[in-house]
Amino acid sequence: MAKDRPYESVGDIDGWSGPTKADIRSQKQHDQIAQAAQATADRLLASGYRPSYAALVHTEALLRRLEEYPPPELMHWRLRLFCGHMVDLAAHPGHKTIQAAFTSARDCPECGAVSQVIVAALPLGIRANPRAKATRPIPTPRVKSEVEKLREENARLREDLARLRVELPG
Ligand SMILES: [Zn+2]
């Protein structure tokens, strides 16, 4: 992920005057995909399919990590939904595109319309996340790799020591 890539801006959020032909097409396409996905899920569940224990554990761990380590900052966006309403939402600052931050649609909190495609979007800026706990730093991959390095070094030294013991006259 390119860190310096600018945040995506879509359409003219204030000058919007109703859905264009392209908006109508993308909402229709989105509805068809959602219906097909629902039908597939229904069919799988009806056939007795259950997610594996490992998949459930993995998902639970991901959710718990997100709960324990909320991102310290959030990117705030203003979105115009297909129904015409505007909503301000926040997302992880690593997501630079609408698709990454919100997939392609949201339910509208104003009129209750479900799964409305985003027809315009304006990145507002990054703000501190009030839910983040400043006292608990996220263990970064760099710290982990240093621990790994120390473990490896420790193992190597133990081997050397064992070899020296063998070589020394008893
Ligand atoms: Zn709405």
Order of helices and strands: HHEEHEEH
Which percent bin holds the helix content? 40-55%
Largest sheet, in brief, is:
4 strands, antiparallel
Proportion of beta-strand residues? 15-25%
Overall pLDDT metric: 88
* Unreliable stretches: none
Through-space gap between termini: 58 Å
Shape: elongated
The Cα radius of gyration reads: 25 Å
Secondary structure: number of strands:
4
Strand order of the largest sheet: 2-1-4-3
Number of helices: 4
The ligands bound in this entry are: zinc ion
Class by helix and strand content?
alpha+beta
- Write down the domain tally: 2
Q: Please identify the oligomeric state.
A: single chain
How would you describe this structure to a colleague?
Helix content is 44%, strand content 18%. A hairpin with a 4-residue loop joins strand 1 (73-81) and strand 2. The protein folds into two domains: 21-130, no CATH class; 139-170. The radius of gyration is 25 Å and the shape is elongated. It contains four helices and four strands; from the N terminus they run H-H-E-E-H-E-E-H. The protein has helices spanning 21-46, 53-68, 98-102, 141-167; strands at residues 73-81, 86-91, 105-106, 116-128. It has 170 residues and is of the alpha+beta class. It starts with 20 loop residues before the first helix and ends with a helix. The mean pLDDT is 88. Strands 2-1-4-3 form a four-stranded antiparallel beta sheet. It binds zinc ion. Zinc ion is lined by residues 81, 83, 85, 108, 110-111, 113.
